[in-house]
């Protein structure tokens, strides 16, 4: 599952191409449509993914591709490039520069390379298995979190949790906030939150309902910065994961986070297995 210098070069080339496709549409007419699952998509999403796929078809025709907009192309190498051209399309459509392009290389189901690229602020996190995560070319690290009480927790939106997941998320919020609204979660951010966690600005990100293209790139970024990524059971994230995602900046807090997620008042837990 080794990552070669040429893989990194190619991933950076993909990020450059996606950013060049996205920037002309930001805060301008973007051809917004609503997909069947009610999620938004724009010309920028489609052009950015098409640009990345053209490069991959030319350079790595044997590798698989799994993209949000244009689906799955099977490969023959056991490697798959997983693409989300705009993670955070809602933020993009309202002019908030906290969306990102996600690019991952998944080797036999395991994410081994990931990029979070914010093309407006020109901020880029690069994670590679076994190497320190780089932010704009410089090593970056998660921060120490000595106590769950007072930790900073982020999620994109409370409305994105299924009904049975809400009590678990709120139990975790209570554990970090002491039930104080002033210590409540940071909302909004999509993949950007995971970059901020990797750079030591956020302690925990908790989400559910994520697809492979939403989380594959995040794993090498967070873990290469010293953090931990897992599902709500504490298991590692792979292509087979169900989409319940935790990022924990200080791995020493992992057991406490998992315990807090399970600590749901009697009568609120529907027996949902994560």
Give a quick summary of the entry.
The chain contains eight helices and 15 strands.
Question: What is the fold's blueprint, element by element?
Answer:
Layout: H1 5-22, E1 33-34, E2 40-41, H2 43-59, E3 64-67, E4 71-73, E5 79-87, H3 89-93, E6 100-107, E7 110-118, E8 123-128, E9 134-135, E10 138-139, E11 153-155, H4 166-177, E12 186-187, H5 192-198, E13 204-207, H6 212-215, H7 218-224, E14 228-230, E15 245-248, H8 254-262
Helix pairs in contact: 1-2, 4-8, 5-7
Provide a descriptive summary of the structure in words.
The chain is of the alpha+beta class. It folds into two domains: 135 residues, 2-Layer Sandwich (Fructose-1,6-Bisphosphatase, Chain A, domain 1), CATH 3.30.540; 111 residues, D-Maltodextrin-Binding Protein, domain 2. The chain contains eight helices and 15 strands. The strands form three sheets. Strands 4-3-5-6-7-8-9-10 form an eight-stranded mixed β-sheet, sandwiched between helices. A five-stranded mixed β-sheet has the order 12-11-13-15-14, with helices on both faces. The chain has a two-stranded antiparallel ribbon with strand order 1-2. The C terminus is likely disordered. GO terms for molecular function: metal ion binding; phosphatase activity.
